[in-house]
Amino acid sequence: MAGSSVDINKVIEENSVIPSFKNFNRKQPNRRVKPLKQITVDEQKFLKTKEDKHKPNSINYFNISSPPSIKPTKKYCDITGLKGNYQSPSNGLRYHNNEVYTIVKNIAQGVDQQYLELRNANVVLK
Amino acid sequence: MTSTPRDDQLSKRKVYDLRDHEDLFSSEPFTSPKLYKSGVPIGIDFGTSHVRIGLTNQKDPSNVFPTTLSRWRDRKLNKGFTFIGNDVNLDQSVRTQARSPYDGAFITNWDYVEQILDYSFKHAGVSSQGFVDNPVILTEKAGAQVLQRKGFYELLYESYGVKKVAFGIDDLFSYYQNNGKTGIVIGSGNESTHIIPVIDGKGLLAETKRINWGGRQSSNFLSSLIALKYPYFPTKISSNQIDNLVKDFCYVSRNYENELSKALSLDTLETFDITVEAPFTEIEKQQKSEEELARQAEKRKESGRRLQEQAQQKRLEKLIQKEQEFEYFSTVKEKLTFLSKKNQQALLKEENFDDEADFNKYLGNLEKSLKRARNQDVGEDETAEEPSFPLADIPDDELDEAQIKEKRRQKLMRANYEARQRAKREKEEEKLRLEKEAQEDLEWRQSDLQGWIHDRREKLKAIVRKRKDRAKLKEQLNDRKSHAAQLRMKSIASLASDDTSKSSNKRKRATIDNDPNDTFGTNDEDWLIYKDITSIDDEELLEEEETQLIKLEKELLEFDPNFTEEDTYEASYDWRKSTLHLFLRGPRPFNSEDSHEQHQIHLNIERIRVPEVLFQPSIAGLDQAGISEVSESILLDRSQGKGFSGDSYNVLQDIFLTGGQAHFKTFEERLHDDFRSFLPVGAPLKVRSAVDPILDPWRGIAKWSSMSEAENSYLTKQEYDEMGPDYIKEHNLGNASLI
């Protein structure tokens, strides 16, 4: 997309100045990129190993997560988002009325799972 | 769907452009080194969507840019460059390479963070030598992960030689900036939403809760919704465009159930529905000149005529053949009556028939098809006078070679002529019959209008029912196990077995492909057997039904005072009544030919469905309680046994909204309504939003940095080395120390 009136070379030049404030002698730690899963696992491990040193009932990332709702969940149509009074027996999609059911009934293979994925109700093969 | 006169009266809808990122008019600004002062704390709000950085002696951050980084290779120079923040948008090829150091709520790539910090300090004007000679105040989330904090400590102490670092919670900085003392802070950011009660300026972390839903999730949700709503949308909608759709058009519904129930009514949609058009380059249709069009039409007509003539000729030939056959078998029939039983049988065998019944059946069918063939158009006979065929009846032996040839021609011509004549007669009879019928119908209508109307209505109903049944049957056939499908299989099986059991009937059917006696297909009727098994999609039949339907409706419209346009079959498919049409195309008819309309998306229910997840996370399959429910339990837990008084009472006076999602319209009002629903009558309640939900955390840092509390909250490198990352010098706006 064009439209920017900024010279790309000027930006490169501006940003290629070596920073005066930086310590380049720092020994680079070896692993600086970690997948998301690893981060959570590491954090849990860290908390576990230091458990005896930590205050009881201390706040951490995991225990401030909001608990599941205790109110009855309302049901909505998966296709339109309207009130979902009915559920298709064949693929589990919720739908609003007869007309939406024509879509639900004849939905292409796999698309029903995409709709279910929106509310985390899809089948995940492992 | 065709547009009706009623549709033309509708006013034009406003069409919004699908906004992409803003164009850049300058590169990221540098703070002048003159403004830089060592020792002044630098505030960094290192968010998942944007970084805000600046010296805290200023009112506003000097730089605000997206937390993105792009490694880009200039192919000409064969050299790699790194672009950060807004500069990423300089070039399309740079932008496609853009990455974030975050994956979800967590930093996964510390190399990127370091480069972004380099960039940030440079732009903030840091010019000290060898190290960054400023304390640094960073934001983090309530209950942030310790190892994430550790990453920042290490980077700042080791790579930048920062002397001391302090952390604080962004939502609380924002509350502090807005002079909050006691209240409930609801911070709905890019990755998560936190609900933090604050009493006397101190955040109560023990009662803080986090909902894993933020702006990014909202955008992703909308993106999936649009992709499923318009699976064949011609252009790709970028994440930037989706973000803008969320920002511009989504709002928190004050009463979700109520609003949903009337969301797709025509009146509501006039304002509720938003039409957004994706940019596209229109393809100019080549205008053909009048002359060219005329020539083309002429060409088409000409070829049509030729085909028609050919078809007529063919039909005529067939008719003649059939007539001859009929004549021949008629003589055979006559002969049969004179013969004895035995000779009859022999003759029939000779003619390939099983018995007399078979023969009669064949003859009957032939007669019928002959009649039908005569009714078909076989072309007009141009000559009005009867032509003469003088040679046709003279025996061969009285003629010479040339005459015999001529005789053969004349014979053919005569047969041709006679066939035409007979066809003409047949047609005239048919015409008379129709006229008579019409006359009778007219008389009936005039004498007994009610009866006539009743009859027509019944006929119409029958057709509509037939259509419905067919649709049902078609649907059932999709399911292999359904009754209809089983019946069909049965009939196919029985047809197949028919073939073998009646194989003696060689004239009509044979089973082996290269059987010389296989004459299947020579007669049109042979193909009728397939009609039984594929009766659903017969286009001819459908067409006939359609014309009949239209005729019936036209008659009823004319003569039945109680039958209006609204009652017609087409009207029952009115887009105004179609939930799906209103959902997909809004309150206007859809013209699938219009390239503008092809590139338009309609936002209606999505506008409230996306923000509603904050209140009902189950909509997006998130197994957590929503904002109102969490707040309710926080308040009720605290008030247990004491009733609503004291802290709980005070806290209600200031419900405070901050974070990027605080931009949703009517968010405050909805919170107000929801809180009212669980609070006792007369409880005080005030809801407000941050002045600037996005920048206020940074401003809060600036304001806080000059306080003595800040001075006591910095952690030096020595202290860090000694105590580790899980140690925090606790302050009102920060996380709690684990040690």
From TrEMBL, chain A:
<keyword id="KW-0539">Nucleus</keyword>
<dbReference type="Pfam" id="PF08265">
    <property type="entry name" value="YL1_C"/>
</dbReference>
<keyword id="KW-0805">Transcription regulation</keyword>
<protein>
    <recommendedName>
        <fullName>Vps72/YL1 C-terminal domain-containing protein</fullName>
    </recommendedName>
</protein>
<dbReference type="InterPro" id="IPR029525">
    <property type="entry name" value="INO80C/Ies6"/>
</dbReference>
<dbReference type="InterPro" id="IPR013272">
    <property type="entry name" value="Vps72/YL1_C"/>
</dbReference>
<keyword id="KW-0804">Transcription</keyword>
<dbReference type="GO" id="GO:0031011">
    <property type="term" value="C:Ino80 complex"/>
</dbReference>
<dbReference type="GO" id="GO:0006338">
    <property type="term" value="P:chromatin remodeling"/>
</dbReference>
<feature type="domain" description="Vps72/YL1 C-terminal">
    <location>
        <begin position="75"/>
        <end position="104"/>
    </location>
</feature>
TrEMBL record, chain B:
<dbReference type="InterPro" id="IPR043129">
    <property type="entry name" value="ATPase_NBD"/>
</dbReference>
<protein>
    <recommendedName>
        <fullName>Actin-related protein 5</fullName>
    </recommendedName>
</protein>
<dbReference type="Pfam" id="PF00022">
    <property type="entry name" value="Actin"/>
</dbReference>
<feature type="region of interest" description="Disordered">
    <location>
        <begin position="373"/>
        <end position="394"/>
    </location>
</feature>
<comment type="similarity">
    <text>Belongs to the actin family.</text>
</comment>
<feature type="region of interest" description="Disordered">
    <location>
        <begin position="285"/>
        <end position="308"/>
    </location>
</feature>
<feature type="coiled-coil region">
    <location>
        <begin position="409"/>
        <end position="445"/>
    </location>
</feature>
<keyword id="KW-0175">Coiled coil</keyword>
<feature type="region of interest" description="Disordered">
    <location>
        <begin position="491"/>
        <end position="518"/>
    </location>
</feature>
<dbReference type="InterPro" id="IPR004000">
    <property type="entry name" value="Actin"/>
</dbReference>
